[in-house]
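User: Thanks for the earlier help. One more: Phage tail tube protein FII. Can you show the sequence and predicted structure together?

Assistant: Of course, both are below.
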Amino acid sequence: MAIDQSVINFAVYEDSVEYLGMSKVTLPDVTFLTQSISGAGVGGNVEAVILGHLEAMTLGLEFRTTTPQSVQLSELRRHSIDLRVANQYEDPVAGTVEARKEKHIFVVVPKSTKGGAIAPATPTSGSGEYAVRYWATYINGKKVRELDPLNFICYINGVDYLAGVRAALGK
């Protein structure tokens, strides 16, 4: 069994081809909608998680300096962000260390940008927050997550939680 150790490095692209520069990324939190259940037969309140329905998700990107590419992400349109990650794993039995691929695909719309700070011999650290419309994660080329609230897709580790809902709605 391999032990995950660290992110070796990563790169951020738009439309899978345009390198956006050096960045620090804050991945979205995944929070499912809930409903409080109470009444006869229930001893108090129970929180029911609504199948496959998500709270709004936000992606954060922080760039070292202001670049044409970081400004481009402020355009009020959908952006396709491709985050490619190399992770380090160690196999303690075999005594090997290897890099494994992780890839995140996002469709986002900008919701805020911060210019950062300008001072001698320091990065500006300008950043942006982006409303996530779509998020897919691949580990070593295998899809492990696909979240697409607008198309009723909630796929996690091989389970499509909204397949029955799409069928019931005629989608």
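User: Great, one quick takeaway?

Assistant: The domain at 3-38+45-169 is CATH 2.30.110 (Pnp Oxidase; Chain A).
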